[in-house]
Amino acid sequence: MFSAEVMERLEVHTKSVGSFKKVKAGIDRRSMLMTREVDGGGMKLSCVRLMVTRFDDCYRFYRDTLGLKVTWGDLGDDYASFSLGGTTYLSIFRRDLMARDVRTQGLPLSAVSQDAFAVVFQVDDLDELHGRLTGAGVELVNPPIDYPDYGIRAMHLRDPDGNLVEINSQLSLDKWSEELRVEGKKYGWS
User: Residue 38: which CATH number?
Assistant: First the structure.
């Protein structure tokens, strides 16, 4: 399933996790479970992986704060994945190990810039989650706001590594902007 070169690199990454045979079996299993076919291309999305510098803090954030189910990994590891339901996963991986693998370790770790991506979650009751998170002391970038031009109500926060996280719920169609309703009809949203 993986080339000898990839397996050799995986062996280096997994020494802290335990036996290589156990990890190899887990990777093979995850690669089959964490895929979703994309129409028309035969390409499969296995997961969204965040490269993090504060692994344990991010692990706790996604497991404890957001309540995601851990499917692989533990505190102190190099890699962990979290189920988002069905075959959709989010994973975290130590940034220094990926930088070594793709030979970017000589580049700056970070720079002040606008966000290049956001991890987006959808929930049924955004206001309930907002109350739970703020009650737990989670600092928000912004509280829940209606975005009629996007058809969502959303709040934003950052994980311990500074990655932008959006949590939203869909607005009812009557709360969409007129322009979005017209556009949505083209795609069957009526």
Answer: 3.10.180
